[in-house]
Design the sequence.
């Protein structure tokens, strides 16, 4: 091995890049589990392939309270992980989204999008948009997925994400508000500890996105005009909250603070007091629709 093979060219919080172009993710990937019918919560789950070309897929969660003639709110969940880690099929996210589906009495679609370095940004945004379009295609019986056709209320869709997933959720809501998406109505968005610009991770995001627009890229620093075009009616970071209130957006915005908690603490221990409180707040937000 030559000397350049072991020399680090760039060091970021989640990965390092060697001089020869190799990328080493700092944290090991979490364990993935298959879908299953959970006897404790009664939530059933299954995986679907949305695009065989890119490998885009999703896990769908259906609570046992689903009645043949009752339509349930639909949660479109986008996981976090710094755009380069984590999985919708990981045990943490599986358990978390399953809990939201159970307590919120909602059907959930959790997206397994492409990650850096195999698929650099903007693959994550394009994959999630394709997945949201796929969900919309099921409306009025137009698609092949019976759980969505039979149980989803496409007029009560919530886009939900944490960390990087919160960032992607914002872009999805802006696209819905800008160009529309026939077949569904986004009534709310929930972003938990969303990643946006203005932190030590700015350079990391710019590196992961070779086609970036610099520090003012609207995907990293939401523009006022984008906030005004959010394609949802209700929203639940302080900076984002304040900018949204100042924009021309006509929806309702709420803020929930979690003092003294680590980033994305809510999915690591679903039994801790503040995680339970946050889940209850999200469930309340969903049920107000």
Sequence:
């Amino acid at each position: 091995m030559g000397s350049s093979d072991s020399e680090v060219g760039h060091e970021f919080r989640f990965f390092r890049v060697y001089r020869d172009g190799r990328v080493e993710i700092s944290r090991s990937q979490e364990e993935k589990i298959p879908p299953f019918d959970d006897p404790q919560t009664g939530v059933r789950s299954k995986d679907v392939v949305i695009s065989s070309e890119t490998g885009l897929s999703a896990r769908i969660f259906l609570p046992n309270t689903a009645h043949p003639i009752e339509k349930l709110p639909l949660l479109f969940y986008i996981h976090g992980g710094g755009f380069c880690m984590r999985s919708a099929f990981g045990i943490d996210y599986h358990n978390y989204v399953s809990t939201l589906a159970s307590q919120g009495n909602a059907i959930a679609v959790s997206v397994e999008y492409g990650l850096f370095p195999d698929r650099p940004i903007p693959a994550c945004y394009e994959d999630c948009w394709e997945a949201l379009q796929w969900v919309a295609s099921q409306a009025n019986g137009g698609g092949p997925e019976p759980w969505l056709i039979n149980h989803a209320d496409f007029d009560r869709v919530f886009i939900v994400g944490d960390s990087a997933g919160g960032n992607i959720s914002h872009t999805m809501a802006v696209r819905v508000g800008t160009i529309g998406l026939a077949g569904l109505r986004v009534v709310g968005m929930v972003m938990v500890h969303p990643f946006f610009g203005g932190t030590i991770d700015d350079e990391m995001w710019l590196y992961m996105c070779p086609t970036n627009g610099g520090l003012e890229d609207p995907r990293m620093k939401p523009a006022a005009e984008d906030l005004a075009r959010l394609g949802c009616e209700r929203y639940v970071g302080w900076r984002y909250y304040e900018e949204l209130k100042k924009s021309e957006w006509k929806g309702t915005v709420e803020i929930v603070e979690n003092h003294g908690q680590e980033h994305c603490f809510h999915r690591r221990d679903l039994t801790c007091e503040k995680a339970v409180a946050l889940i209850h707040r999200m469930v309340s937000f969903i049920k107000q629709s």
